Amino acid sequence: MRKSTIIIALAIVVAGAFSIEAFAAKKKEKAQKKAEKTVVTLSTQSDTLSYVAGMTMSQGLVPYLQQSMGVDTAYMAQFIEGFEAAVKQDNNPEFKAYMAGLEIAKQMKERMLPGMERELKDSPDTLMRELAFRGFTDALQGDTTYYNIDDASLLFKDLMSEAQEAKTEKLYGANRRAGEEFLAANAKKDSVVTTESGLQYKVIAEGKGEKPQSTDRVKVNYEGRLVDGTVFDSSKKHGDKPIEFRADQVIKGWTEALTLMPVGSKWELYIPYDLAYGDRDSGKIKPYSALIFTVELVEIVKK
Question: 59 - beta bridge partners?
Fold first, then answer.
């Protein structure tokens, strides 16, 4: 090896050594500065009030940071560094914008996107977070490579609606079809009357009293069943006396039937899901359930 080459190699090694040493020294100096704390002087009562106010505000913060914000308290020095930076940069518009970005990202990640993911559960679609983030920032930057904001909003609404329909069919389609098949077969029976709305009923006993108006309060005995025969409710579960309510404060199928029944009647009602609880989940009554009720109209409650 030439002498000049050896000299160059040695120079590189020495320079590297000095660079590493300088970096280590700078890091040590930074750590020392962090360790040094300005001495606080509490000269007046206002000074003391302000200082203890700050201390009091820290009460309960550590559990909150751990439980609500997911902060590892092994990094409290970094938390304090961020806190102090935010205090110093309070009037800096660039820093405010940066902090707002952090806060909105947190809301998206912890609330908005998980909510959409829950809605899409059991549907054919999946929310891809990275693409959602990209769509968000592209919209803010006016990037219309694929969609403008109005078209994107309309398309999102349509796609979510399709996903919900597919989810509903997957979860409750069999239940809806079972009700529709039951009602179709039931309508063919001679004893069953079908009204224009789709309500079906069979007269077990015909009363001789007056018929209620929809705004009348009535007393009834009843039993409710699913189309598979499962009893989900009855007036007996609520005591020995008939149940009292206003005729228009129950499901649509009941309101219609009650206004057709003379007092003293006992009917069996066969109610399509759209005249019952629709797409709502009501305990034992799953969405899109057709229902069967045996109803006895005991009395119209007079004022």
Answer: none
Q: Can you tell me which residue has the tokens 């039993």?
A: 223
Instruction: Kindly compute the dihedral angle of the four CA atoms of residues 224, 226, 229, 232, in this order, to the nearest 10 degrees.
Output: -50
232 pairs with which residues across the strands?
Answer: none
Retrieve residue 290's tokens. 């057709």
**pTM surpassing 0.85?**
no
Which amino acid is located at 146 in the chain? Answer: Y
Tell the burial category of 203 from Cβ atoms under 10 Å away from its Cβ (0-12, 13-18, 19+).
middle
Which tokens belong to 149? 């904001």
Burial class (CB in 10 A: 0-12, 13-18, 19+), 246: middle
State the Cα–Cα distance between residues 1 and 24, nearest whole angstrom.
Answer: 33
pLDDT per residue as tens digits for the range 149-178: 999 999 999 999 999 999 999 999 999 999
